[in-house]
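step 3/5: co-fold with zinc ion
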Amino acid sequence: MPELKLSFFGHGGDYNPDQWRHIPGTLDEDIRLMKLAGCNLMSVGIFSWAALEPEEGRYDFDWLEEVLDKFAENGIHAFLATPSGARPQWMSAKYPEVLRVEENGIRRIHGVRHNHCFTSPVYREFVRRINTALAERFGHHPAVVGWHISNEYGGECHCELCQAAFRQYLKDTYKTLDNLNHAWWTGFWANTVTDWNQLHSPTRIGETHVHGLNLSWKRFVSHQTLDFMKAEIAPLREITPHLPVTTNLMTFFDGLDYFRFGDVFDFASFDSYPAWGRGESDEDEALTAAFNYDMMRCILKKPFALMESTPSQVNWQKVDKLKKPGMHFLSSMQAVAHGADTVQYFQWRKSRGSWEKFHGAVVDHVGHEHTRTFRDVAEVGDALKKLTGVLGSGTESDVALIYDLNNRWALDNSQGPRFEKHYVETLLEHYRALTRLGVNVDVVDQTYDFEGYRVVAAPLMYLIKPGVGERLEAFVEKGGTLIVTCRTGCVDQDDLCFLTGFPGPLRRVTGVWAEECDGLWDNERNGIRLSTGETYACRDMCDLIHAETARVLGEYTGDFYAGMPALTVNDFGAGRAYYIASRPEQAFLDAFYAKLLPEAGVRPLADNLPVGVQVAAREGEQGRYLFFMNFSRRPAKVELPAGTDALTGEAVFGEAELPVSGVRIVKCQEV
Ligand code: GLA
Ligand code: ZN
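step 4/5: write tokens
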């Protein structure tokens, strides 16, 4: 597997020089500005297919060669893109099969990006040819350090080719119609399938009520997208086996199982667009960003690229706030703190026309370097040069939080006991409590190895794949601490309910049986009274559980089930498993983990963090770096460990003030 081996922190962004070819001198000016801003890594050619292949079979790569040559002369590197994210007009006109078909059966016409069928052999062949040509021409160019495959894969196609591929996928998965009928429980509403050709993607003009079908389709879309990506990469692997490949992923995107991308790409990369500056504090935006960074780092358990972020504002949120002074630096360092080895932007030069002409960019329409944004970017460039010791280093975490896409699909699709299950919100509540306590968290799915963690939290793990219950049991037996919540262990891999009493495969380890689950209205609350006296509100869903071997630590305060267990713990082997039977308020989780982490032997990276101040650590051959980051929008006091400020070189130890949006990066003293 080729690695992304950079000897410098990557800094740069999406660069679209083909849009500026008619203004002579722009490329030279861009290069002057890139050097001035400390930028050394650009992603080129992402949406350039029309420029690269102006008519069928005629490639025009000379402009790109000039760009790459000038990069190489000036010490700038490139992620070279494959252009499949948007196809040229001539292709859609001549070969309409490359365009997507919507759920209602209507084929789209040319327009926007990501409007292509992942199955179409015609599209795959066009992609294979241009990727081959790009690899042959530039694969050994000194400026090129990796492949940027397509752009933000997503969406689905319901064309006949995709239907046929879906049927084949189902045949490969289920082998026989009997198996499929059983797995999908098709006796319901006379859905029994008697011929493979009857199978069709879920659609509102047809079937959407068979959960097994819906889940299979989600899995198929992921599978087919990865299949397309493998086809994109095949010629690159052959011609440029030395170059690592990636594709850029999105925040909490639920259309694809990103954890499976680790089987295909060499490093993960991520596009991060928090809505900084909303409300009173940036804590929540920072949590969402950090959660996603932790997930990116865990896909392959190695550093990732921050492929896109905005240097100032975006142009697609409801309201696009400018980054307040200091926020660009802070948000860039946050990605590094959580495992990024690059800081890149969308985009380098602000476009003059069309949809993204008011999206933040390093070089504004005015064209020079005397802007606040440019200075902010240059400041990051300066800092990254001082952080070379962090490059390539890893993250040690005692705590894993399970975020599972198969679970998300099944849970969101399930009917009852209320519409909104709030999976992502619930994950973030657990993540918030853990972050406030100053620990590194790994975000993994249920297929990962739990060995090596002290604590595994698996909120709302409704779907449990084969073997996962056993692995979690073994984890607890050996001394681990497991936390699960209401609505756990209800269905198996096929979305069929366990018939052994919920939480299914986790019944033994949690020592509880969840007999029923009550849905609560949005404004309805129950309470959890702990045996230690405190009471907390809870909402959404209340499991009515029986403590079988578990001890009861808290009870419901309301409704006809007041007095029934709401929090339990089960001693199991050398470890223990907690069952939180509802969705408690944040204060409950803050207190719960504050008690649990020390008991589980998890040491925080820093004590007494003010709310809104986050800490993360990276460790490698050059030592341990602790990042203190203030997202609270108020000055805050922190306790720095003994070490050296990685940016100023000063010795540090003890109390320090972090200004609003302040960051301190401490290279810890060896112990
Ligand atoms: C995405 C895309 C980019 C650009 C940005 C704008 O992340 O990958 O091409 O459109 O959004 O924020
Ligand atoms: Zn299709």
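step 5/5: annotate
The pocket of alpha-D-galactopyranose (ligand 1) is lined by residues 151-152, 271, 273, 308, 314, 346, 356, 359 (CB under 6 Å).
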